[in-house]
Design goal:
By secondary structure, this protein is an alpha/beta fold. It folds into two domains: about 5-145, Glycogen Phosphorylase B (Rossmann fold), CATH 3.40.50; about 150-305, Glycogen Phosphorylase B (Rossmann fold). Helices cover about 35% and strands about 15% of the residues. The strands form two sheets. Strands 3-2-1-4-5-6 form a six-stranded parallel β-sheet, with helices on both faces. Strands 9-8-7-10-11-12 form a six-stranded parallel β-sheet, sandwiched between helices. Helix 2 runs parallel beside helix 6 (about 125-135). The radius of gyration is 21 Å and the shape is elongated.
Length: about 300
């Protein structure tokens, strides 16, 4: 049996953007055993992915820890992979090619690899991966049309506790704590405007967003024990949403690749089209300083998009 390695280490938004490429790889190698190499944070997510058979966990140890690098090289070489698709394409995975698996056919960005396809600075991951796969002879049917519906767990119990038996709008006011410029600060005012229109408003905070979401009026969806939702339960809530409004953050990109309609708010930190948002049903607003984006403008943009919810 042919054994293939797919490398996708992180982060959440990038992983969901690579789902379509994994789907195309599976269709191109229907009889192969496909292993995905990822980090501990995304092990369970990749175990759920229907396009791979096994998960190989990379702890991402420092490359100065030679003992761990030698151990990782030994583990990889013992797998006897016939082909590697590097969907991460960063310095770390280039290092893996040069020092661990040089000589193994390699599709990625590493100089000298059998199919070298470097990502330009202005191209989103989905567009780039589609080009790489085409250069490697892989037919591209899904790379630009990701659908992570397989992530979504049943959340009827959560919706019943909140009495959410009518369409609802999900607000995603959080973003990486390392990038506060990605957080639009006016979600409390937006929630009031949406509620005044008779819309149901919900949030589903991550572990560091509880206080932030308490400032947003509406239903905050948590597990029955008060804990935040995991990836799969969050995807379940998003999949049943009528509309989603969020910042440039992982949960927003899950919604994009669930093919849910929505609006995303971007600062000048990164162009919206660099994130692959154009391959879903979202529209977006780009503002150099998100704090200067008025609630009235957001309401104006979403008005024609939510008018037929009920």
């Amino acid at each position: 049996m042919e054994r293939i390695l797919v490398i996708k280490l992180s982060a959440l938004g990038d992983i969901v953007q690579a789902e379509g490429a994994m789907h195309d790889i599976r269709l191109h190698h229907p009889a192969a055993e496909i292993t995905v190499m990822t980090t501990p944070a995304y092990r369970r997510l990749m175990e759920r992915c229907p396009w791979v058979d096994r998960v190989f966990v990379d702890q991402r140890d420092s490359r100065f820890r030679l003992d761990r690098m030698f151990a990782l090289r030994k583990r990889l070489r013992q797998e006897h992979f016939a082909l590697v698709y590097d969907l991460q394409q960063v310095g770390r995975t280039d290092f893996y090619y040069r020092w661990f698996l040089q000589g193994t056919p390699w599709v990625g960005g590493a100089p000298g690899s059998s199919c070298c396809c470097r990502r330009p600075a202005d191209r989103c991951a989905a567009d780039h991966l589609a080009i790489c796969l085409q250069q490697a002879g892989v037919p591209v049917a899904h790379s630009l049309h990701c659908d992570v519906s397989w992530m979504a767990d049943n959340v009827d119990d959560i919706l019943e506790r909140a009495d959410l038996n009518s369409p609802y709008v999900v607000l995603i006011p959080g973003a990486s704590a390392d990038h506060p410029e990605k957080r639009w600060p006016h979600y409390p005012e937006l929630s009031e405007a949406l509620l005044a229109q008779g819309l149901r408003v919900v949030t589903a905070p991550g572990p560091d967003e509880m206080e932030l979401c308490r400032s947003v009026r509406g239903d905050m969806l948590l597990e029955s024990n008060g804990r935040y939702l995991n990836f799969f339960r969050l995807a379940g809530v998003l999949k049943k949403a009528a509309f989603v409004i969020g910042n440039d953050t992982g949960p927003t990109h899950i919604a994009v690749h669930l093919q849910i309609p929505g609006l995303a708010l971007f600062s000048e930190h990164v162009p919206a089209t660099f994130t692959g948002i154009q391959h879903g049903r979202f529209t977006w607003i780009e503002q150099s300083n998100l704090a200067d984006l008025p609630v009235a403008e957001v309401c104006r943009r979403i008005a024609p998009l939510v008018q037929n919810i009920y």
